Amino acid sequence: MIDHSQISEHLAMYLNGHIDLESFEDWVIANTWDIHLENDPKAASLAYALEESFAEYSSGHLTEAQLRDEFRLLLLEREPVRVIELVLGKEPLPAMSSSWSGELVIVQ
Fold first, then answer.
1. What does residue 85 show for φ and ψ, rounded to 5 degrees?
2. Which domain, by its residues, includes 22?
């Protein structure tokens, strides 16, 4: 059974460059195809949002940089209580743009 935190962690792995887009998409497809059977509305909502973004990317409506921006926003919007640290050294909280190079760390 997949849960919201596992999806968030894999999303952060992609955003941090630890896995490539194809590997992340393959993982999402393999692990969320039956998300509607889980009793985790947050996981389902995140999975559906990811699928929508993948569809926009694959149809050419988004570049990979725009897709990454959408994914960053999805992660940040859905994790305000659990806390996502932005590891940036001394830099201020960045704008969520393709020029941003910080690392997202999910804090348990």
1. -85, 140
2. 4-106
